[in-house]
Amino acid sequence: MTSTLTISHLTKRFAGVEALRDVSLSVEPGQRVALLGHNGAGKSTMMKIVLGLIPFDAGQVTVCGAAPGSAAARAQVAYLPENAAFHPALTGEEQIRHYLSLRGERPAQALDLLARVGLADAAKRRIGTYSKGMRQRVGLAQALIGQPRLLVLDEPTSGLDPVSRRDFYALLDGLAAGGTAILLSSHALTEVEARTDRILILSKGRLMAEGSLADLRRAAALPVAISVAPAAGQDAALAAALPMARANGDGRLHMDCAQGDKLAVLARITGLPQVADLEVIPPSLEDIYSHFSQRDGQ
Amino acid sequence: MNRIWSTAVVEFRIAGRNRWVAIAVLLMVVFALVLAAAGAAPTGDIGADRLSVIVASLTSLAVYLVPLIALLMSFDAVAGEVERGTLPLLLTYPVSRAEILAGKLGAHLAILTLAVAAGYGAAALAAFWADPASVAGLPALGRLVWSSVLLGATFLGAGYALSALARRPSGAAGLAVGLWLGAVVLYDLVLLALIVSDGGGALTTRALPVALLANPADAFRLFNLAAAQASAAAGGMGGAASAIPLWQSALSVALWPLLALALAIAAFRKVTP
Q1: pLDDT tier at A15 (50, 70, 90 boundaries)?
Q2: Which of these CATH numbers, 3.40.190.10, 3.50.50.60, 3.30.70.920, 1.10.760.10, describes A223-282?
Q3: Which of A144, B16, B55, B204 could make a disulfide contact with B140, Cβ separation 3.0–4.6 Å?
Q4: In B, which residues are within 8 Å of A54 by CB distance?
Q5: A81 CA to chain B: closest CA distance, Å?
């Protein structure tokens, strides 16, 4: 099966500044791909290029076998903007009926779609009275119209509470199972965690890393933190036995060790009689993300 | 077609909820009735039926009001979508920019037609009530209705173009007011100044007709006055109306909406969300 979205050597400049530099990636049918990056990393720019909203300077982009923004591509791509906005004078149902008509679908499906995102009760109220989370749901409802082949979601979970976020990912899982390719952006790795198949990290317009969470964890090879609690009265003896550890006033000893040395170090610590307790803290998602997005390193 | 229709229905609903339909209809009815009452005096002197005289007055009213209502409804069309942030999403739908404008135009034109028909209709009823011979003025009234709608379409298109160029509602509103003042008020004053300073020379005889035809508002006035042959009652432009062939002013009235819409579509295509 061919890729739903293919980007190769994409470069985009705004007034001489490179917003995207030589970015290549592909998204397969049914794949959920997360695009991570700080504000200004180029996530939204890339999405707008995929949607055909803005032109690009170099490289190739193919969306569902067509040029981005062409009639054929637009018929198969759905989009949820970062802050979904609608005319406040329309009701949720009227707005969705209009979007259904624009896609050549039956307007009568509007209530079903709104029910799927939990807005059945508010369907007859004007969008002007909706909360930010509800507007985001209207945005999600319109993105579900007509089983799109590619779904582009710009920070879709930013306005949602944790429960809504879980419902949201459940909806995405259903779509992906039906063959829809999903490209979603976020600025936090913790938000997308295990709900995506692949993670792309973008920094200053360049693709820094690509792979599953396990791949990224392995590639980052960040040290594991180990914290050891001494048995009563054994503080000084333990410190002497573990010269590489440092005490930072909480009564425990702390040390970092490389992934490869982890087992050897643990074996050595558990062999010591002065140890009362031991904690192993793997690198957090934020650590991995920071490692690739390079903000801390510079 | 379905997409244009759906856009038009949504725009009509929005305009209705923003009271634009009520405002436009009320404005036209009130001004038309005032004119019907005030413009009734000269009937006896010129031997025309009452409605024909009122049509001449309504023409002068429409030249100011129809462009104003059209610009007020249209200046927000593109700039408003940009400001609300609704444009990027809309443009990812399989609908062309020309179709979006066509839908908006359909809704706004329907509102304008409603307002014009209500206003002129009220004036006509007043005329019939006072003078049954007014039936003779009906063809002139019909001409006034459809040419008013075309005049409205011209300024709607111009409003969309300004809206797309400005990209901000406040900027678009300023440009719209500027266009209205320039095309409807100042243009004629400048022409008048030229005629006075030229003293009936070549400028008046050659350039003036072209200048009048080049302005959609003046072409509209010429067309209705010449066609109704009520120039005597209208004064002012009467001389010019008889000097320019009817087909020329009719052509200008018919071509301007197309030109304005082409400009609007071209300007909208240049908008990057």
Answers
A1: confident
A2: 3.30.70.920
A3: B55
A4: 272-273
A5: 7
